Amino acid sequence: MAPLTSVLGKAAVTSLVVALCTTGASAQAAPQPLVADSGIAAAAVQLPPVPAVLDYQLGAAYTPPAGVTLVTRDSTATPAPGIYNICYVNGFQTQPEEHDLWLNQRKDLLVTGSNGKPIIDPEWPDEFILDTSTAAKRTRLAAIADEAITRCSQRGFKGLEIDNLDSYSRSKGKLTVDHNLAYAKLLQQRAHALGLAIGQKNSAEVSRRARNEVGFDFAFAEECFAYEECGDYSDVYGALVMDVEYTDNLPKGPFSTVCRSSDRPATTTLRDRQLVGPNNGAYRYDHC
């Protein structure tokens, strides 16, 4: 899902260096230094501390509740002090507030239908799907995403959550999983070059390929318990899986049922769907 704030800014003026091969690091139960495997000069990468007490703050950034050791915030926010921070970037779709920018200046980088109009995400109708179908387009898109990724590093985040890896499933056949994995590899290279761990988001069924071919360091899931996908991530990433369940979709009973289950990741949190702050009456937060 996309946050309420902007993540992808104006295009960076430099292109990213592309390396051709990598292998995934094995799953870890505690943060350890990791060296990037791309051809770009790499900084040390620190993995998320797991198991962790996670808070998911995309709709609003606020002082984390007592005991929280891991938080995700949007790339336009600043990290919470004293804990591990993951930076959210909508890597495979556009942001609503950049609608005109993409239509007027970057339309050739959007997936279009037979009518020539950009294809939208039906669940997020203000988001266009980025066209990752060619190497040239992937390189240009990665240069645009680089602004947000660099901002994450400069502000002190330690990890990246790259959303919408599964955009190919909404592309009406214009994209394939291979296209998106190839693009994800460019983002992984840039993240590791800046010393950022990078997480797989969505497409649980291709986790093995995502780990081995892209080199994702961890998985960040939404509702993997509700949709019975947690095992697909855990089989590949071990303890390095973080999951957020939502109050409006608990098909197997209350959140306490989720926490009692051995099928959930050790790091599992409950949030309200809109991810509002504590001053909003709709705010909900709990963790296992």
From TrEMBL:
Protein name per Swiss-Prot or TrEMBL: Glycoside-hydrolase family GH114 TIM-barrel domain-containing protein
Gene3D superfamilies (alphabetical): Aldolase class I
UniProtKB keywords: Signal
Source domain of life: Bacteria
Pfam family, one: Glyco_hydro_114
Every Glycoside-hydrolase family GH114 TIM-barrel domain range: 55-275
Signal peptide segment: 1-29
